[in-house]
Amino acid sequence: xxxxxxxxxxxxxxxxxxxxxxxxxxxxxxxxxxxxxxxxxxxxxxxxxxxxxxxxxxxxxxxxxxxxxxxxxxxxxxxxxxxxxxxxxxxxxxxxxxxxxxxxxxxxxxxxxxxxxxxxxxxxxxxxxxxxxxxxxxxxxxxxxxxxxxxxxxxxxxxxxxxxxxxxxxxxxxxxxxxxxxxxxxxxxxxxxxxxxxxxxxxxxxxxxxxxxxxxxxxxxxxxxxxxxxxxxxxxxxxxxxxxxxxxxxxxxxxxxxxxxxxxxxxxxxxxxxxxxxxxxxxxxxxxxxxxxxxxxxxxxxxxxxxxxxxxxxxxxxxxxxxxxxxxxxxxxxxxxxxxxxxxxxxxxxxxxxxxxxxxxxxxxxxxxxxxxxxxxxxxxxxxxxxxxxxxxxxxxxxxxxxxxxxxxxxxxxxxxxxxxxxxxxxxxxxxxxxxxxxxxxxxxxxxxxxxxxxxxxxxxxxxxxxxxxxxxxxxxxxxxxxxxxxxxxxxxxxxxxxxxxxxxxxxxxxxxxxxxxxxxxxxxxxxxxxxx
Length: 533
What we know:
The protein is mainly β. It is 8% helix and 37% strand. The strands form six sheets. It has a six-stranded antiparallel β-sheet with strand order 2-1-11-10-7-8, with no helix packed on it. It is elongated. 40% of the residues are buried.
């Protein structure tokens, strides 16, 4: 099958795979035309046995070649195609690339080595066996750089840099010859920096950046480097579900419904969650009382211990319709041998009680396992090192305990674990005005490293189910991604689980809600007993 070179608005798109190519105004089209007179699904290029066929797919204003309206036209040479009335963004040029026939192989005398003369021959970038195009497993990718657009179908692997053979060529000398790579992941993409000069997001250097929404990166300099925009392109149905989730979250900020319903769980949105740990016996620890009696300052050493006990969790599963979903959250190590406290919606999304708290398009199947990445430092993203599985989960409390059981590849652990841990405090000893520090991975930080925010306890919220301290209200910044994280006192003891945030319409003040740790103690003790038994 001949590859096709399509030129439109100064862009050059090359297509190798023999599959139908959509032309139209829809962002989902393979060739996007911006003119308003172009139909959303205007035409298609369809592979045939001996080439390509251009087909009008019922457009409103017609498809024209050489001034003649066509319904179907074989592409046997370069064509200039006009979609609807002439105007900017309404035409394209199609050029089938001629493939040269291989030179004839001369006859070889009997007994001669067929590989003679090829001692210095190398095969570069040989295509893997199998079908020419893999099934789509996530959103396609639009890359915008230096006024040009490049489109890649998921899954794909692409390079960005000054080298002419890069998939996205950058001419700016600030950019390195091989500056970065973008690889497909289930449900999204990951950018990896390959340059000593660095890649920057919002002025901060990034080495590895998973993304499922549009991001703008600077190459080589945080301000003056060339800008590259990476835009995942979802189908209309997926975008509609995403906007529905956002509308639901905005309604939550106004309606002040139950805290667990505010937790962000979505197929394409990262949900970082962080919780910290109790003593090895699951008790409140001997290191101090609740912050009602201790208002000492949280020391750097204590905070470093809390950060070290913070882990990033990630998993792959499907939604109720069977669509693949990858997501991430956080947890806290509560025993040195690998017990981790986290949210039920991260570890076990099918837990009884969760279904009543989330809309149908947010419900997920339980993952087979979760990947556990240990915190490496303030400015280094965590890399997966272990696998963990659920020991106990409570959907009503939206809490779970998981246990590390294997390395990242699923191999049995070859040594006993000795991980950093965090003690549990006593949430019944808290008073309004006490300091509270929240640890987590909110997406708003765009960091990848653990984020720390501080505030005070504002008041306590009662409920019939959980009594006068069903929730803790705080002015500490809690954003989507903090949900399920760790709230600690000045003795570095975990006193609650950040679970929600909301505010009144038109008021620029957001209230954070924390689930007191005493409400999940029984769950922790049960998990410890099960693993010790």
